[in-house]
Amino acid sequence: MTFQELGLMEPILKALAELGYEKPSPIQEKAISPALSGRDVLGCAQTGTGKTCAFAAPILQRLSAGHPAGRPIRSLILTPTRELALQIQESFEAYGKHLPLRSAVIFGGVGQQPQVDKLKKGVDILVATPGRLLDLQGQGYVDLSRLEIFVLDEADRMLDMGFIHDVRRVLKLLPAVKQTLFFSATMPPEVMELVDGLLHDPVKVAVDPISSPVEVIDQSVYLVDKGNKTRLLSYLVEKLNVKNAIVFTRTKHGANKVAADLQKAGITAAAIHGNKSQTARQQALSDFKAGKVKCLVATDIAARGLDIEELSHVFNYNLPEVSETYVHRIGRTGRAGHGGTAVSFCDFGEKPYLKDIEKLIGRKVPLVEDHPWPMEIFEAPKDAKGRPVNADDAEARQAARERRRERAAAAREERKPRQSPPVPAPVPPEDAGQSPKKKRRRRKDSGESGAQPVPIQPASPAAGESAKKGRRGVRQQHLEDTMPTAPSQPSSDFYKPNPLDGDVILDATARLLAPRKGPAPEHGQGAKRKKHASATQSEHTRREQGRHGQEKREQKAPEKQGEGKKREDHKRERGRSRGRRGGAPEVVLRSGSQKDSTEQPSLIKPYYLTPDD
Ligand code: AMP
Q1: How remote is the CA of residue 304 from the centroid of ligand 1, in Å?
Q2: Which helix (H) or strand (E) holds 340?
Q3: Sign of the dihedral defined by the CA atoms of residues 580, 583, 588, 593, in that order
Q4: Using CA positions, which residue lies closest to atom 12 of ligand 1?
Q5: Cα of 524 to ligand 1 centre, how many Å?
């Protein structure tokens, strides 16, 4: 079958040909025609099967049939991860290259203004992750009331990542009459519930059940102790002539550590996980795609949906607890029918996971016994009370504790000079032993001003700073400290990352909980003084940082302004009440000890549609 036979229009056929697509993939063969005719589609397919084109091509064709006034959003593609959202929008751009349709992508973890600017210009097709979509819709920038085609992508993943409530909230914003294209790699009961409520007489298309990569990928497992895994990895990267590989780790801490250790061993590597900023993740990904980085060390959630062509190897540095994840992972190297190599490391504690994986894929993963670091520890790690523990989780928790301790110590250190009294000028020898009165008289006599400081040579830059503070007065210094600093400078009062410019991904909730710059609330005299400073700071912050907000308010329709104000008041009120209850609000960051959602046991019981379903 050809794309032409599927009924696609010339501009799309031209774009597909330019991309080198010679013939439709199975999901495209099955889904494009019904979608073109306006039918709802239930697609059981995972990323890598060509499903983006299966929904994007019909959407582009249907939308180019008419151009309603006002350029409303006519198609929404809801997808769980930022990377996937970006890739989908890029695909729309590529497939729609010869059509006058506009698309935009919105996702969290980056500033909203560029996204808002795009929305204001009008877009036909919007690709979005649920959190940012609801955020911008709540602010009045997204109107979905004229939507014609809705795509829910990776529905099972939405569920897995805890986005299901957000998805339901988005569904309520959509018009009742619309075409829905629904894709999920697995169809657990919760997904089927969504399907039942959303789709009308859908055409069911299913391709390659999830276990298909198992057939084409060269798999092997090495039994190796946890402490020797990085050595073995470096050794294999050289020995197996690895061109480019994704290395999967269990924790974000693990990803950082493995990447750093590989770098030390002279292998270019970058870590990619949920605590990295979107910019850092994109940079790592583009360096990897450009061949500047050989190993991308990733947690499952970060690697989900990454479209990397010709990935030569996948390494499972840690075996996943959820066996399906193993298939997802190794599938990265077997895209679009290409074979690849998947190498897994298994320490003693991970043996049960290996057993589960082999059960799921229905075959033994070939064991490589001849390697320089054979397993020597035949005992699962236990905690102090003798209970079995996961050593990687324990290590990540310990690292998180150390980081917290370091931050607290640094914060204490930082606060010290401000709280200490001004450094007294050294007493000249002739003053020693004289009463203060006599000293004053003596200075007056000799023409010295009492306020004149005696120069002090600071022992260190910090000491010099503290001396300066002493001279200018604690109060003045405090006011300066509480003033907003340039975005690149971290607030000196808290050793916490600035949520707006740091190497940290924050969702909307975390942003609300992020600390306002300024000292922790205190009681008593100090508190009163600081309250004033803090008020000055808030005012200043509002003035300085509120330019975007101002613009936004100006752009909003008059009736929206009232709503926006209520929202802001509500946020401010929430912030205050937190401050009252527990001192300075904590930045809610996912610590290294917490797991990515895909690293937690899945609630999903896989159920695969067969083509006859
Ligand atoms: P997807 O499942 O949509 O993420 O697609 C996986 C990869 O397959 C992407 O790199 C697409 O560009 C590529 N692809 C999709 N359809 C085709 C096709 N018909 N022929 C060749 N490559 C394709």
Answers
A1: 16
A2: strand 340-346
A3: negative
A4: 50
A5: 65
Whose Cα sits closest to atom 1 in ligand 1? 50
Ligand 1 atom closest to the Cα of residue 3 is 19
What tokens does 492 get?
A: 């000196």
- State the residue for tokens 């909003």: 556
Query: What tokens were used for 348?
Result: 């003693």
Q: Are 222 and 343 in contact (CB under 8 A)?
A: yes
User: From edge to edge, which strands make up the β-sheet containing 245-248?
Assistant: 269-272, 295-298, 245-248, 313-316, 340-346, 217-223, 367-368
Nearest CA to ligand 1 atom 19: 24
Q: Which residue has better confidence, 75 or 321?
A: 75
- Separation of alpha carbons 468 and 471, rounded Å: 5
Q: What is the pLDDT of residues 69-104, one digit of tens each?
A: 889 999 999 999 888 899 999 999 999 999 999 999
Do residues 153 and 88 touch, judged by C-beta distance below 8 A? yes
pLDDT tens column, 376-415: 999 888 778 888 788 888 888 888 888 889 889 888 888 8
Rounded-to-integer distance, Cα 179 and Cα 37, Å = 10
Find which of 89-103, 214-228, 481-495 is predicted with most confidence, using mean pLDDT.
Answer: 89-103
The amino acid at residue 497 is P
Tokens for 182? 């629904």
Q: Tell me the pLDDT band of 212, cut-offs 50, 70 and 90.
A: low
